[in-house]
Every structure is written in structure tokens, then in C-alpha cells.
Task: inverse folding
């Protein structure tokens, strides 16, 4: 790694000032599992690291009237095991469990994962499907944006160079909702997903009131797909409808191809896992009915 | 080159070092402290050969800046031997034939120790989940899992 100076702001605004001052020469550091790896490979070579870990009161995980709130320094393992990430938010803990390995989750943060914006990352699709927001702080103050608008390209986000993430907010899912996240990988553990499918399905009187399906690993950014919304909303969900919706998604996407999988394989896995995701979400909500 | 002070504890002993910010914890452990039981494998946080325990949590030391260990406590494989006796995990790995080339072994044992310290009675799936970040190219994993299972449930010394 190229050598650098480690800067240690005591507040978010101090961190933003440092990032603004050093511009392209500085990067923000939280857990470091992504950044240190990129620096070792010399893909990035900042002369200054702004270490956010000294900023107080950013490591919380709590539920209040508005939903689940996760501070920017909360580690993935803390989220996975937190008593706050249960009940309506349990699917989030189940998804975090699929990320990397214990050692990575002990160090890496959710905010850092989102800022890296790897197209195959697991949190983004589920959090987008749940309508999450992200609160960021810059020299001009704070702003909150829908997570759906946070990702701009692969490894790129709407975060300005002088901004830091403060919090991720997830509203409670609507009543009578089933939530699933499926990570399609080659091996059972540790891999980045080839395709990730997040599904949030809401029923009312047996009819699908709303459905949101967001894919990871298929495009350069998480992709919310229209197929399920077009085919299932306002209708009774049966297997034929699920199959049509899944096929529509497979037709709708234009998958990337990379060392992990071809575009055709991804397209087929999208079809299979979208179908499974809807079935699992449906079972979940129907299970609660009984 | 500018250095910064690193005060931390390794295997129960306090150290004060001057390190460059770019040094990883793995480099400091192996090169500055001469503790070479912890291995460099992939260098990218994927194989787990560099696993150490930091404040009770298993971490990949090749992806951790040494300065991120300031004020903290690190345990490496060398720290498991007490008074010349092997730790029960080490003994179990030997007895179960869970070691072939031995390169993954320190990392496997540290991940296992971190698991058992937090969860003394893990299920078979919990053991697998805890070791998911440690790769072995020799053994096929089965004997490693058997070795860890054999220690799980026994409440001998940590």
C-alpha cells in the first residue's frame, strides 16, 4: 500500500471538512474491509484516510416510531445479532448473515457496504424493496435520500466527495407483508452473489395489494423490476401468475456477464429466483394468517 | 516516513510500537512482533489464513490497518499454548487428523476459538457458519468440523 496520513475527526462535520479540504486525495474509512483491500491492490491510493471511527454516537441500532435506524458505524455482525432487528425487520438480519463471513461482518459496516456500491452486494436490494432512506451529512448540512436513488453506477453513489453517511432508516413493512431475500451463489458460503432477489409482498383480503422486487448482481446498480408489479398487483396470486411474473422479469432484464456467470445464466437464475422469492414471501404472509 | 504510535496487547503482553499507517495488522504481527503462526494467504480477506481474535472477535488481519488495533487486545495462535500445553482445540485438530499442510490451521483454530468463547455449545451449522470464512485446500473440511465439534460442549479453560 502507498503510505498515507491517518486523520481522526471527532465529529461528522469535522470529517466533512477534512474530506472537502483534501478532496481527491482523501477517502473516508470506517470498517475498512473494502477500502483496505482496494488500497492493497492499488486501485485507490489516497494520501489521507479520514477515519470515521472516532465519531461518537454513530454505532447505534434502534427501533422507534419511524422504524429501524442503523447508525453509520454499526457493524454488520452487530446488525445480524441485534435484538432490534427482529420481528418485522427479521429479514434484514437474515440477509446480513449471508454477507461474506463472520470475520468480515465483525469489522465491516452496513454504511460502508452501501457506499462501496458493489453491484452484487446483498443489502441494497432488500433495503430498497423495504423503502429505506439514507441520511448523509455534508458541509452544507444533512440530507435524506431514498436508497433507491443512492446508487448511480457500479461502485458509484450519489454521495458527494465531502459527505459522510450518518444513518440508514427502514420504515416498518406494511401489515400483512411477506419478505424474502435470496442470494444465488456458486458455493453455500462466502461468495458474492451471482443474482440477489429481494421481494416484499403485501396482501389484503387474499389479493396482492403491493409487490416490490429488487435485483442485485444483474445490472450495474440494484434494479427494481416491473414484471411482478404488472402481473401480480390487484390480483390473486397463484402459481401461474408467479410464473408469468418471473418470466416477465427474465425478459425485462439485460444482465451483466462477468467471471462468475454469463448473462444467459443470470437471466435464467433471475427467472427461477424471482419465482421462488414470491413463493417464499407469499408463504410467509399466509403463514402469519393462520 | 511518518509513523504513529501503536499501543496494544498481543497474547496478553503489552506492546508500544511505531508503525507506518499503511501497515496491516498481519504485517505488524508477523514482521514487527515475529509471531509467524498467523499466515498470509490471499491477502484479500477471502481465505481466512490471517484470522486473529481482536477484542474477542475473529477478524482478518490482512485487511485491518494495524493502527485500528490501538488500545485493543489481539490473540494469535501462539497465545493458545499455556505453560507448554496445547489448547484443547489444537489437541483436537491433531487427534482428528484435521491438519495436512497446516497452512489454514491457525486461522481455523482462531475462528473456532472465537466461536466457542461466544457460544460454547454450537450446532453443527453454527460451526460451519463460523468457519465459512476459512478455506482449506487439503482436508475437505470434514475432520476440521469433527475436531471443533469434539471440543464444543466441553467447558475447559479458554
Result:
Amino acid at each position: 500500500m502507498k503510505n498515507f496520513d491517518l486523520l481522526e475527526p471527532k465529529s461528522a462535520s469535522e470529517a466533512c471538512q477534512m474530506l472537502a479540504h483534501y478532496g481527491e486525495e482523501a477517502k473516508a474509512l470506517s470498517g475498512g474491509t473494502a477500502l483496505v483491500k482496494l488500497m492493497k491492490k492499488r486501485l485507490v491510493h489516497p494520501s489521507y484516510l479520514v477515519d470515521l471511527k472516532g465519531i461518537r454516537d454513530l454505532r447505534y441500532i434502534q427501533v422507534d416510531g419511524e422504524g429501524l435506524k442503523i447508525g453509520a458505524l454499526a457493524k454488520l455482525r452487530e446488525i445480524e445479532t441485534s435484538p432490534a432487528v427482529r420481528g418485522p425487520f427479521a429479514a434484514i438480519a437474515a440477509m446480513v448473515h449471508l454477507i461474506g463471513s463472520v470475520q468480515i461482518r465483525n469489522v465491516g459496516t452496513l454504511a460502508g457496504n452501501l457506499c462501496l456500491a458493489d453491484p452484487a452486494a446483498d443489502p441494497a436490494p432488500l433495503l430498497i424493496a423495504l423503502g429505506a432512506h439514507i441520511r448523509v451529512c455534508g458541509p452544507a448540512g444533512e440530507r435524506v435520500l431514498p436508497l433507491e436513488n443512492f446508487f448511480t453506477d457500479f461502485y458509484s453513489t450519489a454521495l458527494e466527495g465531502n459527505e459522510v453517511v450518518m444513518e440508514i432508516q427502514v420504515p416498518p413493512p406494511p401489515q400483512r407483508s411477506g419478505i424474502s431475500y435470496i442470494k444465488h451463489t456458486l458455493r453455500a458460503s462466502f461468495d458474492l452473489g451471482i443474482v440477489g432477489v429481494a421481494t416484499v409482498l403485501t396482501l389484503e383480503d387474499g389479493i396482492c395489494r403491493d409487490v416490490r422486487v429488487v435485483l442485485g448482481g444483474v445490472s450495474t446498480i440494484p434494479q427494481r423490476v416491473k414484471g411482478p408489479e404488472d402481473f401480480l398487483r390487484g390480483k390473486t396470486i397463484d402459481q401461474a401468475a408467479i410464473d408469468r411474473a418471473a418470466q416477465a422479469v427474465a425478459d425485462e432484464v439485460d444482465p451483466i456477464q462477468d467471471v462468475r456467470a454469463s448473462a444467459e445464466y443470470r437471466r435464467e437464475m433471475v427467472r427461477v429466483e424471482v419465482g421462488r422469492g414470491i413463493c417464499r414471501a407469499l408463504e410467509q404472509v399466509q403463514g402469519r394468517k393462520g | 516516513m511518518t509513523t504513529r504510535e501503536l499501543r496494544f496487547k498481543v497474547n496478553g503482553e503489552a506492546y508500544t510500537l511505531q508503525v507506518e499507517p499503511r501497515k496491516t495488522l498481519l504485517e505488524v504481527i508477523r514482521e514487527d512482533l515475529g509471531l509467524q503462526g498467523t499466515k498470509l494467504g490471499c491477502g484479500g480477506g477471502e481465505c481466512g489464513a490471517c484470522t486473529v481474535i481482536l477484542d474477542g472477535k475473529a477478524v482478518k488481519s490482512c485487511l485491518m490497518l494495524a493502527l485500528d488495533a490501538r488500545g485493543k487486545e489481539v490473540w494469535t495462535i501462539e497465545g493458545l499454548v499455556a505453560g507448554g500445553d496445547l489448547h484443547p482445540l489444537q489437541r483436537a485438530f491433531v487427534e482428528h487428523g484435521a491438519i495436512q499442510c497446516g497452512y489454514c490451521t491457525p486461522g481455523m483454530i482462531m475462528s473456532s476459538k472465537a466461536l466457542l468463547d461466544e457460544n460454547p455449545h454450537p450446532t453443527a451449522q453454527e460451526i460451519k457458519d463460523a468457519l465459512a470464512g476459512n478455506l482449506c485446500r487439503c482436508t475437505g473440511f470434514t475432520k476440521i468440523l469433527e475436531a471443533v465439534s469434539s471440543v464444543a460442549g466441553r467447558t475447559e479453560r479458554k
